[in-house]
Write a structure and sequence with these properties.
The protein is an alpha+beta fold and 138 residues long. The chain is 40% helix and 28% strand. The chain is built from four helices and eight strands. A four-stranded antiparallel β-sheet has the order 1-8-3-6. A hairpin with a 2-residue loop joins strand 4 and strand 5. The longest helix has 34 residues.
Length: 138
């Protein structure tokens, strides 16, 4: 039996997502709304997407394979941010529970995306703490 790599490469992920239906959002359209529950995972195939939380844009995603709806799916709670198409964007769409329960490649991809985001948030927090410490030591 072949082991699934902990961080699947893009081609392996694309093969896994190929069977999923595609949906298109035009520039300005809402993809996910904070507070809603869709039960879906959306994987960016192409386009540009903004993630907005509490009125602040926290991310701009262009990378194919970027995933949206994962926090809601994994924590079984409403979406935590609004997601908007900044230009025409296409997504592979899946039922979150069904896909994550049966597809190890996709599950590991979602895990890797979340870990990268956590690492980025930790780095930003460290930067803020250093800036605050410098400001208060003057």
């Amino acid at each position: 039996m072949n082991a699934v790599p902990l961080i699947p490469d893009t081609s392996t992920l694309q093969e896994s997502l190929a069977a999923l239906p595609l949906t298109t959002y035009r520039a300005g359209e809402t993809i996910l709304s904070a507070g809603s529950r869709t039960g879906r995972l959306l994987f960016l195939r192409n386009g540009v997407v903004a993630v907005v939380r509490d009125g602040i844009q926290i991310a701009k995603e262009t990378e194919p394979g970027s995933v949206f709806g994962e926090i809601s799916a994994l924590l079984d709670r409403p979406h935590t941010a609004d997601v908007y198409a900044l230009e025409t964007s296409r997504f592979h769409v899946a039922d979150a529970v069904a896909l994550l329960a049966k597809d190890a490649v996709t599950l590991l991809h979602v895990e890797a995306v979340l870990v990268r985001r956590l690492d980025g948030a930790n780095q930003a927090l460290i930067g803020l703490k250093k800036a605050i410490a410098t400001t208060h030591s003057d």
